[in-house]
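User: My collaborator and I are trying to settle a disagreement about how two of our proteins should look. Neither of us wants to argue from intuition anymore, so we agreed to look at predicted structures for both before our next call. Could you fold the first one, then the second, and keep them clearly separated?

Assistant: That sounds like a sensible way to settle it. I'll keep them separate. The first protein:
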Amino acid sequence: MPPSGVKAARPAHRCTECGYASAKWVGRCPECQAWGTLQEAGPPAAALRSVAAGPVTAPARPIGQVELTGARAVPTGIPEFDRVLGGGLVPGAVVLVAGEPGVGKSTLLLEVAHRVAAGNGPTLVVSGEESAAQVRLRAERIGALHDRLYLAAETELSAVLAHVEQVAPSLLVLDSVQTVRSPAVDGTDGGATQVRAVATALTAVAKSRGMTTILVGHVTKDGAIAGPRSLEHLVDVVVSFDGERHSTLRLVRATKNRFGPADEIGCFEIGDGGVVGVPDPSHLFVSRRTAAVPGSCVTVTMEGSRPLLAEVQALVATSAGGGSPRRAVSGLDSQRVAMVNAVVERRGGVRLADADVFAASVGGVRIAEPAADLALALAIASASRDTPLPEGMVALGEVGLSGEIRRVGGTGRRLAEAARQGYRLALVPPDAGPAPKGIRLMEVPDLGAALSSLFPG
């Protein structure tokens, strides 16, 4: 019992998903909005009134005298993966690679470990989901066998650290962080507490040894990285591995990168020989046909610093039922498609109120930027009129609610990529800049002018 007049310390409650702390229990976490995740964590630690000065690890120096050798990226030998990472793997960096099961994460990282072992030093792959024999079979299939590539199957953190001490690798790949547990920490296997403890311990080891560490993370049904959101704050780089299960295309994106841009994209194709980089992926997102068809328009999207050609398709059909017409979207932002539909009907004079409208991208690519608005509007108008657009044409521009066509960033690089791919005509907003060699610009101030120039009469 506490002394008379002294208030007892109230127990603290912590969210198992995001780590949010609260003095009392609530049913829904105010931070991540998850239900039933706050658990009692004991009384909160008392704040320190004063902290005495202690020893420093290294004296402070002028910023110009700080050496850069330990922060330079080392290429992995896979150009598409290096592009996403910002040039390669930085010694001591911790990279989190997340993706759905079966998308190809383990295969790609096994190839990365093989390349690093062949060029930079010993690498260690620790598998908590598969046996060593299963990983060996995959390595033989993709040709990733090397004398300096070490393999272990462990689920205990202490065993993983023992392997690190024995092998002294330059790269550690842990597949996956949810399957490794620390006996010194309470919590269910794969839970928030365990995942945070494992990631914290491996991060400390990676920084002290200058060892690059790649952690594989599971993805939940809603697309979020399993485990606490604080795991993304512990690591230096967060990479997402996306791809449709029925497609061979895989896209690798960096959502966080302390050593380079966080908006680059790498393109891969998965096959019997493993995951292979695609240095020129524009042809994957454009249909190859001998004649033009209605409802199809090509645009140029920007993924980081890389321009990619992408095709937008639309189908307008008479609604069969007497209820509300259908609106189906694949690979595009449904809210933006609905807005463009309304602008096409109101400002372009295309009747869509009693028609089913379907819109999709080609090749499984996801298009979310406004630069594809004009191409989508033209594809819808073309499908409604059942008249194809001119061959060899691309469309760039954001469509406003009043029908105006606005400029988008990186227009010069977009047009240069279109010209390189053989396109000869580009519909662009006014003042788009000079035209690259081999392509003619048609400036259109609004959607009505664009439709009048393409569909006269």
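The second protein, kept apart from the first:
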Amino acid sequence: MTTVIETYARFAAGLRTAPLSDEVRHHAERAIVDWFAACVPGGVMAPATLVAEALADQVGAGNASLVPGGQRATAQTAALINGTASHTVEFDDIFREGLYHPGTPTISAALAAAELAGADGPRLLAGVVAGYEVSNRIAKAVNPRHYDYWHTTATVGCFGAAAAASVILDLDAAQTAHALGTAATMAAGLQQAFRADAMSKPLHSGRAAEAGVLAARLAKAGVTGALDALEGPRGFGAAMSGPDVDWAAAIESLGVDWTITRVTFKNHAACGHVHAAVDAAAQIASANGLTIDRIASIEAGSYAKSLEICGNAEPVTAFEAKFSLPYCVAAILVRGSVRRAAFDPDALADPAIRALAAKVVHTVDPGCEAAFPGARSARVAIVTADGARFEHFAPTRKGDPDNPLTDAELDAKFHELTDPVLGAAAAGDLLARLRDLRRAGPVGDLLRDSALPHAAE
């Protein structure tokens, strides 16, 4: 009997030669653009810089590149550090049906594997698509229950990374199945690790990327994995979600329904569970000309996970503020943006933001809860000092597949995040190259010849 892993492996291996539609390629290119937008600034910040320092013996030589400086590193080390960097500024993509950030582990692993193998742009795109399609389906199958204790990007990310690396390293279906089987038993990452002000959360993504590259390399050398590691009685699903995971649904329409076309690209530099409320508050203020001095109270109703994870009304650090719905709603109303500057020290100390955040009452809205996880919605009401009440329901977030960032908006996001690190001209050159990956030569040449090394000068 064919296992779930073997089904995924046959699909992934087939993408080495199967043509991708223009639509799927376009979405893969968008995902890679978005990954660089998050990774470039994250690469010059802790914890990525600290990981590079800790692994100094593995940096300076190797087959892969660190972003944005262009330093050489071993493939697994590059996947680890770039994967960590791309999950640091909280601007990485989301597959909302799976409570999962697919790009950070998948693309970090794909780039490292591409440099190791001398792969070109089309092969990189094929690997990225394989990683998204396999891991997005696993994430959807095991959630929302998995998310109670496990960080999906850390766990399911191992499968995305392994599938991507397997395609790029030219593993056949049998080898790819063993890579996925080995990745399954490497998968871990606790929710508790990112509910504290620690650096573990971005490390989750980096570790998943590293595990995927390692699993693929081991499988290519003949190391075997458990092929029933997903659906087995002591496997990933049973251990980390429960006995009722619908694995048949998880492989249904594989290669027909392309989940990469339904990825969310963030419009705010904060946890995705706050975005709908931020959008709704901004809409109310804009539509009604509200100024903060008129606001007496703010009611923000969303789903239970939003309150559970982002209910801290008095964040102290930038990390905590990114996971605070009251803070982020106040920031959009005071400063007009919840981009990176909203978490700078002056913003964190802004008495206007703090005073307004104290007026936010965050609750669970039954309708929003019923729509979760298929939709990330919020219902916000702002009450003024003179008793006027203004309400807005955001059924989704700006950036979600039903309200997507246009290519122009995604490019603007890319420049906003990368220009301060690379310079506008160099960032523009990199963006042009990424927008033409379907015709690009070796990925290693793209990374070495693009603007990236200028960041280290």
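Some points you might bring to the call about the second protein. Residues 272-394 form a domain with the 60s Ribosomal Protein L30; Chain: A; fold (CATH 3.30.1330.120). Strands lie at 59-65, 72-73, 295-302, 360-364, 378-384, 389-394.
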